[in-house]
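In the previous chapter we treated chains in isolation. Here, by contrast, the input contains two separate entities that must be folded as one system, with a combined length of 990 residues.
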Amino acid sequence: MKKQILLIPFLVVALIFTGCSDDDDTTPNTPDPVNEQEVITTVEVTLSDGTNSYLLSWEDMDGDGPGEAEISGATIPAGSYSGDIQLFNKTVDPSDDEYVVTAEILEEDLDHQFFFSAGTGLNVTTTYTDMDSAGNPIGQQFSMTATSGSGDFNVVLLHEPDKNAAGVPDGDMTNAAGDTDVNIVFPIVVQ
Amino acid sequence: MRKYITAVLLVISFMVNSQNCKNSVSGKVTDLHDGSVLSGATLVVLETGQSTLSDFDGSYKLNDLCQGQNYSVKVMHASCETMTFKLKVSRNLNRDFKLEHHIEELNEIIVSGKAYENQSSSVFENKLSTETLERFSTASLGDALKSLSGVSSLNKGNGIVKPIINGLHSSRIIMINNGVRMQDQEWGKEHAPNIDVNAVGKLTLVKSASALQYGGDAMGGIIIAEGLKIPVKDSLFGKTSISAASNGRGGVFTSQLTKSTKNGWYGALQGTVKRFGDLESSSYVMSNTGLMEKDFSLRWGVNRFNYGLEAYYAYYSTEIGILRSSHAHGAADQIRAINSNVPLVVRDFTYDIGYPKQDVSHHLVRIKAFKKLNNSSKLSLQYDYQKNHRFEYDIRVGSDRDTPALDLELDTHTALLDFKGALGSFDFKTGVMGRYQNNFANPDTGIRRLIPDYNKYDFGIYGVLDFKINERLQSEGGFRFDYTYMDVLKYYRNTFWEDRGYDVLFPELVIEQVGSQVLTNPRLEFSNVSATLGFKYQIDDNSNLFFNHAIASRAPNPSELFSEGLHHAIARIELGDLRFDSEVGHKTAITYELSTEKFNLTVNPFINNIQDFILIEPTGIRQTVRGNFQVWEYRQTSAQLLGVDLDAIFKINNNFKLSHQLSLVKGYDRNSELPLINMPPVTTKNEISHTNKKLKNLKIALQSEYVFAQNEYPETNFDVYLPALETTETVDISTPPSAYHLLNLNASMDFKMTNTSSLTVGLGIANLLNTSYRNYLNLLRFYSDDLGRNFLLNLKFNY
């Protein structure tokens, strides 16, 4: 009796194995690829002086993957420019709502603000030219006065900054808190 | 079958000349099955008629017994069979008496408890009783476990508490809930066990992989949670507990009701609701740290002497807010958070749980049957099904604002067949396990899958032998084999696939090219062998020595194999490796246990050498649109963990007791000779407690917990250039916080309501001095202090 009982586990093992081998296809159903949402692959800043426009572009198609970003700056004459920032998610089809990220940012204008700074050697100043529904700047539209020099132009987009904190409405992000959505630099040469 | 043992002992002694009658016998009266102390047991010496009662912790003492004389001691307790023990007094004796519960209850233990009776005979087991667990009603299972030496926790805030045993956690620990191995995505650092602490009747900790019946991959240890005991008699009983806590301004309501009958049928129902708003540190509100938990469980079954059947269902659901300011988008945010003394987001207190948050539900169904074939052999069969659904919400923008960033469904089916028997002087256990698991990662999140879709098949077979060499020496040996097969479908980014060289190594895995991604079908196989060998030696009546060596093998988990992207929670990019092999650990543990009337001591040194230990470490910086992120890559190495756990209890008198606990663990990467990350710092807990049985069973305890600063850690800081400030700053993510000291106060009193019901009122103050501190093992330590003072009130009705 006892010895027969000992065989039971082996019987079950045999059953489990036969059970598995009946079904040759162990692979799960083919998953759909994920359409990455709210990824910012591309940042384009257009500077125009009324007649000419200059494009600053930053693009990293694989997001946090190992691929490097492609950055192109610009050489611009000294003068005054109006600036416009467009953000894209080029991992989705251009017909997709998510393709132009700028639209979403502007829909949630109270929660977003751009900040600009010029690195050593680059003499440019910026001022906001747009406003959210509460009368605070967004920075998607701005004006730039380029005097001289060359260096890095830093563009930062913060999500949920404290727009009323000291200095923030004037473009100083020191007290803004918030989460960084964009933080990149473009090389600019002013002639 | 009822069998009363009556006192029929004729002791004839002719040694009446010039005896020394000043000897005493002392010891403890405990429950044979779970070791819980039995207070109020009556002990009568039949020969002399003298009697005494066991006190609150089960201790008794009988004086004025004559040397060389044989005595019979009758021990009686309301809920137990009366037993008579024979003893010969040769000197002052220490003798513990173990009583059995009424026979009806014994049968019950065969169903739900027997499997746990001896997890492993050569490893000292730490246990938490219902009474201790009740103190953690408002907290979590991880918090309750932390009260044991050698256990610490990896926290994400205060709601997500993951146990660490002797320095190891996550998939290196097995959690057993009512006989079912939890499959709740335990690999993740921020995934806490999905068990309601209020549903647990008893918690056992085995700090070794030696309980092979549960699995062979418990490098750290095994945690076993069991439900409450159900007696086999006509009864209806229950308890309801209401707790309120000042910190978080919330509380817990938990209730259970059990109905049992004499003929073995029983049913039990249990439920818990837990609700907290934002928690507070010593000086500010930790915004978005609220919690909502709803759990319930059902048990129904029949319990006969020769057979039994039980169905069990448990539902666990929790919604936990994650500290709002912990959401760091890149190095610049991290620097701001670390440099700021207060969290960057501090709002007014609220009960609302915003984003980021976790929303997890877990269903567990178990059906178990057993049949006793004869007195020493038993066959049991178990099937269980678990469904774990985990949503993680992040701070998102626009139309995705309310879309989860992670949506994983994990379904697991397990069948177990176990046989327990005896062959001559050997006791043995053997069994087989088959498991099927499916993971589904919902693509609608719009975020690349953290864990890919997979099917996993596990098969295990084990055997454990127990052999009593002589009265004092018992040995144990076991062996287990596990086979794991994983069939995975995963999209890799082309850039990563090529960067890693997988395109050259594994071209055969590619199914198709989809845009910038490649769909692959890795099929992984792992064969793992685990074993245990040990003994227990009874040095004398008061002391024991345990020795155990366990070999554990663990297949790499999905996150170690497949991670390849940004982990928002800790603001770093994590990369797994498809090529990993199983880890193999060798853990040797020795425990010395001394237990006398005045003094209890356990000392437990251990050493754990792990080959192919999988760890994650920083390897570089990657630039993204949000600035720079640190890249952490998993790697295999040789690791060594060693340490000691110590527990000591001094009984000053019947009313006062001093308890001391020390946990020490050190971990090293033996290839690089660097310390391992996230090793628990040395911790010591000291407690003075007062008990007065006469004054409504008054209990007061003052506990001090001192946590040293971790002085051994790998340096993982990195430098980052901040274009806005044109400076390069070091992001200090490795320096551990300073040492801290916390005081906790607990008090309780019992009030009898009617003959069958009682009320226990408990009051507690955690972090009495409102100390501000940060904990090295809290993933949110960069962003906020830990919990401030907390007043707790608990009302418990037993009926």
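Helices of chain B lie at 103-117, 130-134, 141-145, 331-339, 494-499, 502-505, 558-562. The two ends of chain B are 28 Å apart (CA to CA). Compare these points with the single-chain example from earlier in the chapter.
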